[in-house]
C-alpha cells in the first residue's frame, strides 16, 4: 500500500463555510468511530450489513485497518468524526474493483461532505489503479442514487428483493457503477 494513501489528508469546505478534514481512519479513532455509528437511526441501520451499534465490532474496524483490503476515510469537523466512507477492495479476479460505502451523521448530510468523501475515494481508486467502483443502495433511496449519479456513476443493475428490513420485508436494490478505466477491448 502506498504511503500516500496511508497518510491521505484533504481539507474541504462545506456548504455554510464549515471545514472538514478527510483522512485515513487510524486505531486512535476507536472511540470516535463508535460514537459516529451510535448516531445512526434505525432507518439507517436497516441498510447496513453489520450491526454498527455493536461497539466491539466498530472498535475492531478502527483497531484493525488493513489497507490491502479496505481503504477507510473519516470526515473530521471541529475535532469530531462525523462520517466514514470506504473502498472495500476486491481480491483475485475482482482485484480491479472496489465497493464504495459511506455513512454521515444526519446533521452533515446535504452539505457537500458526502460528495467530497466519494470524490476522495474516486481519487484514491485512481491512485490504486482500480478500474471499477460501485455502490449499492435500496431502490427506494432515490436521493442516494442521484447523488452517486451526479458524480458520474451510472445506474447499472437492479436486484430484486436484495434488501431485507428488520421485519423481514424485502425491497429492491440498485447498483451504480463508475468506470475509472475501461479495458481496451471495450473501447
Task: Explain how this protein is built.
By secondary structure, the chain is an alpha+beta fold. About 25% of the residues lie in helices and about 35% in strands. The chain is built from six helices and eight strands, in the order αββαααβββαβαββ. It has helices spanning about 5, 30-40, 40-45, 55-65, 115-125, 140-150; strands at about 10-15, 20-25, 70-75, 80-90, 95-105, 130-140, 155-165, 170-180. An eight-stranded mixed β-sheet has the order 1-2-3-4-5-6-8-7, sandwiched between helices. Strand 5, helix 5 (about 115-125) and strand 6 form a beta-alpha-beta unit. It is globular.
Q: What's the topology here?
A:
Elements: H1 3-6, E1 9-13, E2 19-24, H2 30-38, H3 42-45, H4 55-63, E3 70-77, E4 80-89, E5 97-104, H5 113-127, E6 132-138, H6 142-150, E7 154-164, E8 170-179
Parallel strand pairs: 5-6
Antiparallel strand pairs: 1-2, 2-3, 3-4, 4-5, 6-8, 7-8
Helix pairs in contact: 2-4
Summarize the structure.
The chain is α+β, with helices and mostly antiparallel strands and 187 residues long. It is 27% helix and 35% strand.
Shape, please? globular
How would you classify the helix and strand content by structural class?
alpha+beta
- Tally of DSSP β-strands: 8
Widest sheet: strand ordering = 1-2-3-4-5-6-8-7
Tell me the strand percentage band.
25-35%
Mean pLDDT comes to: 92
| Rg for CA atoms | 16 Å
Task: State the helicity in percent bands.
Answer: 25-40%
Structure keywords:
alpha+beta; globular; 187 residues; 6 helices; 8-stranded mixed sheet
Amino acid at each position: 500500500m502506498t504511503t500516500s494513501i496511508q497518510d491521505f489528508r484533504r481539507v474541504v469546505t462545506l456548504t455554510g463555510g464549515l471545514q472538514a478534514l478527510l483522512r485515513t481512519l487510524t486505531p486512535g479513532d476507536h472511540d470516535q468511530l463508535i460514537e459516529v455509528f451510535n448516531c445512526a437511526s434505525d432507518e439507517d441501520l436497516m441498510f447496513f450489513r453489520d450491526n454498527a451499534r455493536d461497539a466491539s465490532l466498530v472498535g475492531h474496524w478502527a483497531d484493525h485497518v488493513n489497507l490491502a483490503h479496505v481503504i477507510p476515510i473519516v470526515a473530521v469537523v471541529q475535532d469530531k468524526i462525523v462520517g466514514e466512507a470506504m473502498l472495500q477492495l476486491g481480491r483475485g479476479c475482482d482485484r480491479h474493483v472496489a465497493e464504495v460505502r459511506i455513512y454521515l451523521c444526519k446533521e452533515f448530510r446535504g452539505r457537500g461532505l458526502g460528495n467530497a468523501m466519494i470524490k476522495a475515494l474516486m481519487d484514491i481508486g485512481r491512485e490504486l489503479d482500480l478500474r471499477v467502483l460501485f455502490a449499492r443502495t435500496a431502490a427506494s433511496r432515490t436521493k442516494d442514487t442521484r447523488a452517486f449519479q451526479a458524480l458520474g456513476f451510472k445506474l447499472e443493475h437492479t436486484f430484486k428483493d436484495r434488501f431485507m428490513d428488520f421485519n423481514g420485508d424485502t425491497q429492491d436494490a440498485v447498483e451504480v457503477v463508475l468506470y475509472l478505466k475501461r479495458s481496451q477491448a471495450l473501447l
